[in-house]
Write a structure and sequence with these properties.
The complex is a heterodimer of chains A (112) and B (118). Chain A is built from no helices and nine strands. By secondary structure, chain A is an all-beta fold. In chain A, the strands form two sheets. Chain A has a five-stranded mixed beta sheet, with no helix packed on it. A four-stranded antiparallel beta sheet of chain A has the order 2-7-6-5, with no helix packed on it. In chain B, the strands form two sheets. In chain B, strands 2, 4, 5, 6, 9, 10 and 11 form a seven-stranded mixed beta sheet that branches. A four-stranded antiparallel beta sheet of chain B has the order 1-3-8-7, with no helix packed on it. Chain B starts with a strand and ends with a strand. Classes of the chains: A mainly beta (112), B mainly beta (118).
Chain lengths: 112, 118
């Protein structure tokens, strides 16, 4: 799977949009970009995923650049409960089937 | 979204004992489940892939005789940590996916099990 690079930490004021960047410059054509988040001492929670088109759901928006080498997860109105570690993962088949390989992620702190 | 239930959420055991962790997919059948381990302030590390009715596939460096995985049904996988030692203390997380197993399928995660070995 292609490697991803994320900033280790970010801050965001409550009510503002949180924009979390991710670089995946070696992504190949059949690889999807996934975003998960993990609140302390819980299992990861699915947020959104996409291939090349921008995606939006009730939680967030995913913007993927035209060359697919980077993406941005947007939480439109961050709340204190959005404080978590956010993982950007590029996924393809492997010897482990379709497991998700987690990097270090971005620790997002939403402040009052 | 689909629900994956993991039990127990927390377990404390003495060194040398074995601990079993259960992972259930509650509203879908999972032919494949994955087991992860997470040490404090680190990311999740894939330990093994559990396939229903067959032997698990372990990642490099994971001892298959220490971490026994059983996936006897389409809704249940178990991880047994045998002869646990303090260095096995960690957060163990399972995940599962509906049977199509394609690259664009979501994985759903259990809530994790915090194992503390004294």
């Amino acid at each position: 799977d292609a490697k991803t690079t994320q900033p280790p930490s970010m801050d965001c004021a409550e009510g503002r949009a949180a924009n979390l960047p991710c670089n995946h410059s070696t992504i190949s054509g059949n690889e999807y970009v996934y975003w998960y988040r993990q609140i302390h001492s819980q299992g990861p929670q699915y947020i959104i995923h996409g291939l090349k088109n921008n995606e939006t759901n009730e939680m967030a928006s995913l913007i993927i650049t035209e060359d697919r080498k980077s993406s941005t997860l947007i939480l439109p109105h961050a709340t204190l409960r959005d404080t978590a570690v956010y993982y950007c993962i590029v996924r393809a088949g492997s010897n482990s089937g379709y497991a998700l390989n987690f990097g270090k992620g971005t620790s997002l702190l939403v402040t009052p | 979204g689909a629900v994956v239930s993991q039990h127990p959420s927390r377990v404390i055991c003495k060194s040398g004992t074995s601990v079993k962790i259960e992972c259930r997919s509650l509203d879908f059948q999972a032919t494949t489940m994955f087991w992860y381990r997470q040490f404090p302030k680190q990311s999740l590390m894939l330990m093994a892939t559990s396939n229903e009715g067959s032997k698990a596939t372990y990642e490099q460096g994971v001892e298959k005789d220490k971490f026994l995985i059983n996936h006897a049904s389409l809704t249940l996988s178990t991880l047994t940590v045998t002869s646990a030692h303090p260095e096995d203390s960690s957060f163990y997380i399972c995940s599962a996916s509906p049977p199509r197993q394609e690259v664009n399928e979501k994985l759903f995660f259990g809530s994790g099990t915090q194992l503390s070995v004294l």
